[in-house]
Design brief:
With 208 residues, this protein is an alpha+beta fold. It folds into 2 domains: 77 residues, Glutaredoxin; 106 residues, Glutathione S-transferase Yfyf (Class Pi), Chain A, domain 2, CATH 1.20.1050.10. It is 54% helix and 7% strand. It has 9 helices and 4 strands.
């Protein structure tokens, strides 16, 4: 059985969605925020970050995008991503890597700015640069969605859920919705998706 270490409002949101869509059983372990992490948890997550997915064979994975890609490969019948041999698979891998390497790090710099400077007065500049990078990345994804119902392929994939999770962390939601109408169009659809509505009750990613 899978074991998911997570907490409300974290990147565990998309992994919980993936496991639910795949209809596979898993044990959920909520990891409280703490400046003094549990040594047992550090053994599976050296950076003290969630989500972490422990696989049925006992190995553990970090990095939400990598976890999503693995689950899509292990449960191909769930339609979590385009098939490995489908043309849209390349787009899926591209955008998952883009979001995890451009947007997710920028979001971390915004909300944990103190980790990214040794200048006690430097956090404001780190946060401003992080927001600019987020805006640049979301603009790229908004353009990719133009004229499309989904980010990749012809149906819902984990790339769509990953994107709406990230946009929900934008510090100015009203501006984000106005600035990137195609992302908002996708997000509006997923706000009505029953599974995501259920997950949102515990994660509170966006107003219910």
């Amino acid at each position: 059985m899978y074991k998911l270490y997570t907490r409300p409002g974290s990147g565990g949101f998309v992994v919980e969605a993936a496991l639910a869509l795949a209809n596979v059983p898993f044990e959920q372990i909520d990891v409280p925020r703490s400046d003094r992490p549990d040594p047992v948890f550090l053994a599976v997550s050296p950076l003290n970050q969630v989500p972490v997915l422990t696989l049925p064979d006992g190995r553990s994975m970090t990095e939400s995008a990598a976890i999503c890609i693995l689950l899509a490969e292990r449960h191909p019948g769930a339609g979590l991503a385009p098939a490995v041999d489908a043309p849209a698979r390349a787009d899926f891998l591209r955008w998952m890597a883009f979001m995890s390497s451009v947007l997710y790090p920028a979001i971390l710099r915004l909300y944990y700015a103190h980790r990214y400077t040794i200048d006690a007065d430097g956090t404001k500049a780190v946060m401003q640069a992080a927001i600019a990078e987020m805006d640049r990345g979301f603009a790229v994804l908004d353009a990719a969605l133009k004229g499309r119902d989904w980010l990749v392929g012809d149906g819902l994939s984990l790339a769509d859920i990953y994107l709406v999770m990230l946009i929900a962390w934008h510090p100015d939601i009203d501006r984000a919705r106005a600035a990137w109408p195609d992302i908002e169009r996708l997000w509006a659809r997923l706000r009505e998706h029953q599974l995501l509505k259920t997950l949102n009750t515990s994660h509170e990613m966006w107003p219910g």
